[in-house]
Amino acid sequence: MAELRKALELDPRFVLALESLAFLQSASGQPVLAIEGFQKALTIAPGHAETWFNLGFVYHQQKKHELAIDAFKRAVALRPNIDRAWYGMGLANRSMGHLPEAAEALERAGKLQPMNGHAWYELGMTYYALERYDKLQEVIDYLNGFEPKMTMELLAQTRSRNATRKA
User: Fold this and answer.
1) Domain that holds residue 79
2) Nearest to 108 by CA among 82, 133, 130
3) Is the pTM of this model over 0.85?
4) In a domain? residue 114
5) CATH number of the domain that residue 100 is part of
6) pLDDT tens digits, residue range 45-98?
7) pLDDT digits (tens, 9 = 90+) for 5-49
8) Distance between CA atoms of residues 46 and 62, nearest Å
9) Of 103, 118, 129, nearest to 153 (Cα)?
10) Within a domain: residue 24?
11) Considering the domain boundaries, does residue 53 fall inside one?
12) How many structural domains is the chain composed of?
């Protein structure tokens, strides 16, 4: 971090240094500084999809889901195939109870990264919340083809929640 700060002293508009420092601040538990850094980088280079994604990720971690969704939408508007932003958008929407939007975003993430077990797991949980058991079964069948442990976790989660609902 010290080297990045030195680089920014020489050139405060050095976008890569701003983004890198903000990323490190996020990873080291300094979300407020990370948000400030990503926002500053975006004032200089608003067309960088990865920076919008990183900003959305930090917002999501801070439970600022509306801001996260906005940042993720900006990322995918700039680069529609940025699977991480679709995934983040799905999680943030689900956190807000926007289940159809969450399913749509997680479907996109899964299509862009067909072997991303986390995206498929979260999609399965979203289908479960939507009571779309037919779609949940499709996810289980697909996920089991490459992530059997995650499939078992998905089955355990949906069965335990179903048992709780019936009790």
Assistant:
1) 47-166
2) 82
3) yes
4) yes
5) 1.25.40.10
6) 999 999 999 999 999 999 999 999 999 999 999 999 999 999 999 999 999 999
7) 999 999 999 999 999 999 999 999 999 999 999 999 999 999 999
8) 22
9) 118
10) no
11) yes
12) 1
